[in-house]
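Lecture notes, unit on protein representations.

Consider one protein chain, 244 amino acids long.
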Amino acid sequence: MRRFLTALAGLSTVVVDDLPNGAQPGLAVILCHGFGASGTDLVDVGGEILALSDKLAATTRCYFPAAPVDLADYGMFGARAWWMIDFEAIQRAQREGGFRQRLRDERPDGLVEARAQLLALVTAVRQETGLGLDRIVLGGFSQGAMLAVDVALQLESSPAGLLVWSGTLLNEVEWRKLGPARKGLKVVQSHGRQDQILPFAWAEYLRDTLTDLGLQVEFLPFDGPHTISLQALQRSVALLETIG
């Protein structure tokens, strides 16, 4: 297994593959970590994906960009974010029952900038590998999953697939405008019923919205907290195998 650090589109990025030296991948997987994690938080997931499938090990390269916002100034050394989160507003919306309307109205400050950086990274991966969007899978965990959904909808054509681990719905108005162009896009979405950070009902909002827009969502609820379940990883590998 090969693992190295590089810079792509201005983002520090760990690359993982098991390809022979000089070989180009037939499939690229870009996975974005969540709020408050280190840039390497999901790197071991790439190793697990390749270890679970000989087919993917022979064809796939995984990319793990570090989010641009350094949270050291907030006392979270080594932690990063794609954009800052207004936790007080989220808690207030939970208490007052206005979460869904807030999602409908809100495009978080910093999302547009994060989107631009991930779109630029996708372009860099395409240039590096020679792959089209139909050979690139986007995904992530928590905040990274939300960004992956947003970017998948913003691209000029559909990516090969979408992996949404413990994500939720945001920027709903814009997503609903863009979503019909992604009809048929295959999505693996997982969420813990005991998630205390992003409640399970919020994942259901996302599932229902993507399904309404015509995306093919395989929804994987599990008994557990804010994490990635083994079933989610296995079904993600299964989706990747249908592509790679």
